[in-house]
Records
---
Amino acid sequence: MSLTTKLKILADAAKYDVSCASGGSRRAGSKDGLGNSTGHSICHSFTPDGRCVSLLKILLTNYCVYDCVFCVNRVSSDIPRAAFTPQEVVELTLDFYRRNYIEGLFLSSGIFRSPDDTMEQLVAVVRTLRHTHRFGGYIHLKAIPGASQRLIEEAGRWVDRLSANIELPTQADLVQLAPDKQITVIEGTMSQIQDGVQAARAEKSYRRPAPAFAPAGQSTQMVIGATPSTDAAILATAAHLYQQYSLKRVYYSAFSPYPHADPRLPLQAPPLAREHRLYQADWLTRFYGFSMDELTTADDPNLSLDLDPKLAWALRHRERFPVDVNRAPREVLLRVPGLGYKNVARILSIRRYHRVTLDDLRKLHVPLRRVRPFVITPAHSEHLLRLDREDLPALLTKPAQLELFSASLDSLSGQL
Amino acid sequence: MREIRFIPTPDGWLAAALEQLTDRRRPSEILWTETTAEQPALPGLFSDEEHEAGRGRELSRSSRAVSVPENFRRLLPVVAYHRDRSKWALLYSIFWRLTTTEPRLLAIEVDREVARLLTMQRQVERDVYHMKAYVRFKKITVESEEHYVAWHQPDHPVLPLAISFFKERFAALRWSILTPDASAHWDGKTVSFGPGVSQREAPSDDALETAWRTYYAATFNPARINPTAMRAQLPGRFWKSLPESRLITPLTQAVRGRVGEVIDSRRPMAVLPMTGSLSELAQAAASCTGCELHLAATQTVFGRGPSDARVMLVGEQPGDQEDLAGEPFVGPAGEVLNRALALAAIDRSQLYVTNAVKHFRFVLEGRRRRHQAPRPSDIVSCRPWLEAELKAVRPEVVVCLGRTAAQSLIGGQLSVEQQRGRFFSSPFSSRIMLTYHPSSILRARDRVIQDRLFDLLVQDLKAAQSAI
C-alpha cells in the first residue's frame, strides 16, 4: 500500500477527533533541531467545513479490536484498513512541518492487540520525533485508555498534550454503544495523566529545569446525540471532568449518522446548533462565572436551540436586570446577554475615564438589540419597559436559519 | 503647514515626531513625507539586527527628552507597518494628545482616533498572523543543498515583523520568504533582505504538495460542509499561494446538496469539471469513480439531447442494453418510451433524456445481468452529475420517470401512483413532474394494467409538453 493511500485512509479515520488546538505550551526552537511552540494556536488552513487545520491529524492504524457502535473504525465496519509504521509518521510530520503546513502532530490510533501494544508504538513515534530529530513542534497524543502507568509517564514527558476521550456522556451510554469501554478505565487514564502533570508541577517548584509533563494539559471529547442523554447530563459530566482532572477543554462532537448504520443509532443527526449551544454553555462556565447547573432547569434539562444559554438564563432571571454599565462590577456585566468577556474588559477600562453611552457600546460592536433591555446607560430608558414583556425572547432572537450559519464562527472566539 | 521629511521606520518617525513635539508644533501644522517616497514604505529593510534592536532599546534611547508613554511605545512599531500612509499623521495626533492634555487617551477605545489606530494595529497583527499561517515553503535544491522558498502576499508590508518567528522555528533550515514588497533570506546565521519578487519568479512546485492535498481532502468532513465559515477564516486573496486551495471548489461542489442531508463521509466523490458544457461534462463523467458502480458496469451512460431542450426526462439508471450501447433508453424500456412519445406527439430529438444514476447496477445470475434498484447512496453519489446537466440544459420542465429520479430531485417519501402528473418545486427545478417509468409498465401484472399505466404515461407526457 502506498504512503499516499495510507495517509488518505488514516487521516479520514482521524477526522472525527475535533480538537485542533496547538497552543498552551511554549517550547523554544533550537539551532540544530526543527520547530518550536509559541504558546498560541496557528491555523495553517481551513477545510470547506470551516474547520481549522493546525496539526497533522492521523491514526497510527485504523485496525481496532473494539466494537464501538458510533465509531467508523469499529471492528465490524467494512472500511479499508491501513497502518503506518512509526518511522513513516515521523517523516511525514517532519516533511509537512518543514514546509510550514502544520504546527505539529495529532496522533491517535485504533487498538490493535492490546492497549499497551498500541501505546508502545505511539510512544515510539513521539520519542523519535523529540529525541532523535529534536522536534520542537506541538504534539497532541491520544492516551489509550487502560495503558500502563509506565507508558503514560513516558508519553507525558515527550508531548504537549495527552488526552483520553470519554466518548459518551454516561456509563449507561457506554454500555449501550461502546461495550468494550468503561468510564472507570477512561477516567483511570485521565487520573494517571493528572498525576503526571501535578508531579511535574511540584518538581518544578523546587527544581527549576524539571522536565515538563504534557504542559498543554489534557482534553477530552464526547459524542453527543448518539444516545438520549440530556444536555444537563452532558454538562454535569463535563463539570465533573473539568473539576476532577483539571481538563483544559471538553470537546462536543455531534454524532453524524451514516448509511447501513447499526439500528441502535439514531437516524437523525442532532442539529449542529445543539453542539454549538453546548460549547456556549461550556464557555460560560469557564470564562463567565456560571456554573453548569444554572444553565438548564429541572423542567427542561436541555439547552434551548433558539436562545443562547446566557440569554435564556437572563430571561429566567429578569429580576436581576437592568444593570448600570457604568457601575456594575465585572461579574455582573459578564452575565449580561451580548456582552462578551473582551468587551467587558474594554468597558471596565473605558469607564474609568469616560461615561459609557449606548453609542459607545455600538462603537464596540456590541449587539445592541440583545443588550439594550438589560442595561442602563446615560440618557436611555425607553427600552427598559421591555423587560417584563412576554414576547421578549422573540424580540431578541434572529430567525433560526441565520443563527445556524453563524454558529461555527462565534464558537471559535467563544464570545457570547 | 510644514513638511517634515523622515525615514519611514518606527525610529525614524519617532525621532522626527519628538522634535516636533519639543517645538510644540500642532498636528494640523505638519505634512508627513517619507524620504524614500519613490519606493514603497519598507521600514526595517536594513540589517536584521538593527530592526530587532529597534523594537526596544533604540526607542528608549532616542526618547530620553520627552517621555514616550509605554502603551504608545508598544503600538508604534506595529502600526508603522500599516500600508495606509495616513498612519503617520494619526500617530502624531495621538502622540500630541497623549503628551499634552489627555494622558489616558489610549484607554478610551471609543475615541474616533484611538479606534482608528487600534483598528490599524489589529489589521497589521492579523496580517503578521496570516503570514505565519499561510507561508508555504517549497523545497528546492541549490548546489546540492536544500533550500526552502515561499512566496506570500501580505496585505501590509509586514515581513520584518514576522522574521523572528521563522528564524526561531526553522533555525536549522535555509529558507527564503518572498513577497511583492521585499524578500528575506536565512542562511542559518543571519537574515538578509532583498527586493520584492512576483509570484511568477518564485518556485512553483514541490513533490510533497500532492501528499498535503491528499491530507487536506481526507481531513475534510463533507457532512459538516460550511463554506461561509471557511471563507471568513481563509479569505480568497490568500488562495493563490496555497497548494490545497485548488481543492476547495471541487470538494465543496461534490457535496453541495440539501441542508440536513445524510452524507456518508467515507464515500469517494465525483470530480466535476469547473466549467460545464454538456460535452465536457459527458467526457468527465466517463471517468467518474465516485461510487463503486463503475467497477462492474461497462461504461458511464450520460444523458443525450440538445443543450437547449425545454423538457428533460430523468429515468432511474441504465439497463443491460443501455450499458452496452452507452446511450439512455435504447432497450425495451426505450421502446415503450418511444411509443408513448409518439402518441403524445413529442419529438424525442427535442428532449434531453438522462438517468438519476449513470452506471448500471446489477447482479449476475448465470450469464444474465439482472437489474438491481440503486441504493440511496448511489443516487446521492451521482446527483452532482444530474445537477450539472440541469444547469447546462436549464429545462423548463423536468419529468421524473419513476420514483428513483423523483427521490433524487424532489426528495422525501413519494408514491408514483398517488403523486403522478402533479408539478413539484425543489431546489433543482421549479417544475418537476413525476410519472411511471416505462420499465414498470413492462413489469405490470397483466395486459389490462399495462395498457392503463401506458395511457397515464402518455397523458403525463402530454401535460408536460403543454406546460412549456
---
Amino acid sequence: MTSITADSPATRPRKPQTWPRTLVVAGIVVALTVWAGIAVKADLGDLIRNGQNAAGTLIQLVQPDYSFIVETLPAVLETVQMAVIGTAISITIALPVSFLASRATNPNGVVFGIVRFIMNVVRSIPDLLYAAIFVTVVGTGALSGIMALVMFNLGIMVKLISEALDGLDRGGQEAALASGATWFKANKAAMLSEVAPSYISQTIYVLELNIRASAVIGLVGAGGLGMLIDKVRTFYQYHYLSTVILEILVLVIALELLSSYARKKLVR
Amino acid sequence: MERNRVNNAERTGASIRFNDVGVTYPNGYTGLRDVNLSIEPGEMVAIVGLSGAGKSTLIRAINGLVPITDGQITVGDVELRGLSGRRLRQLRSEVGMVFQSFNLAKRTSVINNVLMGRLHHTAAWRTLLGAWSKDDVELAMQALERVEIVQKAYANASELSGGQQQRVAIARALAQKPRVILADEPTASLDPPTSHVVMRDLQQINAELGITVVVNLHFLDLARRYGQRLIGLRGGEVVYDGPGSEADESVFESIYGRSLTAEDVLDARPVVP
C-alpha cells in the first residue's frame, strides 16, 4: 500500500491547548451567578419552608377542570382575534418603516438616524408596560390589548426586516439606480421582492408571539385569555387556571405546526 | 404600432469625452489620473488592463456611479461633474449598464427585471402598484426578443443560467432606449462559449442600433475581437488608445507590465502570433 503522505511532509502543528481558557470562562460564569443570587437574596430555604402551602395549589393545578372550557371560549376567540388584528396592523406599518431603518435602502443618514432612535425606544418598552399604559388611556378590553400588541410587534418587525434588508444582495438596486431610478423606485422594484420571504416568515413568527403575549397583557386588563387568568387566579381557582394554561399550550402548538408548514410552503 | 421602438433607435449614440479626468477615492486611492479620451457616437470601445488598473472606475465615472474629482466628463452635451438629483437621473436614464454579476433581482420575474429599465420614466404610484404601462411592457418584450430570451419572460430570474441572466441584464439596459451602454466585465462570470454569445449581442446592438458601447474586458482576445478600438489602462492612466488590430506584443507589455501568458486570453490558443 502506498502512503498518502508527501515524500517530505511538513511538521504537523501541535494541537492547541484550550482547557485553561475554558476553565477561566466557566469560573467567571459560576462566580457571576453566585454573586447575582446572593445580591437578590434568593434563598433556597424558602422553597422548602413554603412547600406546605404549595402542595395544595399543585394538587389543584394537576387536576384541570375541563367543564370550564365552554366558559373560556369567548376569551380564547378574543385572544386569537387580538393577535390577528394586532399582527395585521403592525406588519402594514412595519414594512415602510423597515425600509427607512436600513442603511441598504435609505441613503439619508438623518432620517435613518431618527427612525432608528425612535424604534430603539419603541423596542425597549416591554409589552406588559404598553398594555398597562393603553389600559389607562382607552380603558380595559381588547382595544388596549391590540394597541399594545401593535407597538410590541413594530419594534420586533422593524428590527428583523431592516436587518434582512441589510443582508440582501443589492445588485438589482444598483442596476435600477444606475438606470436613473430614484431610491424609492429602486427599492420597490429590486429590494421588495428580495425581502418578501423574510417578511412573510417574520409575520408568522409575530403572530405566534402575539398569541403568547395576549395571554400576558390580559393580566393588566388588556382583554383576552389573560384577563380570564387574572380572574381565576384572584379567586384561587387553580383547577380552572390549569385548564386555561392547557388551552394556551394547545393554541401555541397548533400555531407552531401551522407556521412551520406555511414557512416550508412560502420560503423556498 | 410601437413595433419599431427598439429596432430603430430614435436617436443615435452619444459621444463621451474625458478632459483631464482624475478620480481620487475618499480613502486617498487614485482610481484615474489625467485621462483624456474622445469616444465618438456609435463607437464600440474595449477597455483592458489588470485588476486595479482603473477599468471599473472609468466605466462607472461615465454614469456618475463613481464621482470624478478632477477634470470633466461630457456625455452627449451633458457635463457630468457636479451633476446630482433629477439631472443626474436624467443622464443615467440615457446610459444603460451591464454588470459582471448580472445584478438582477432574483426573486422576481424576468420581465419585471427588464422593466426596471423603464423606472425613470414611470410614475412613483405606478412603480408602487407594479402597474407598468402597455408601451413599456411591449418595449421590454421587444428587448427580450432581441437577446433571444423572450420565452423566459415570466420565469423567475433565479431559474436562469448565468448566460441567460446576463442577456436579461442587456435587455434591461436596452429597455432604457439608451444612447450609451456601459458593460463592466460582462463576461467575467461566464464560460467561454457564453462569453462570445454575450459579446456578440453587444456587438449587434452597437452595429444595428448605433448605441455607443464601452466594455471592460479582462481577456485580450475578446477585447481585440469585439472592440473596434482598444484602450489600455495601467495604474489609472491610459497607456494605449488605438485599433485592436494594431495592438501587438509590445503594447500588451505596456498594459500588463509583462509579456502575454495563456491566462490573459479566454480561448486557449495564442492571439498574438
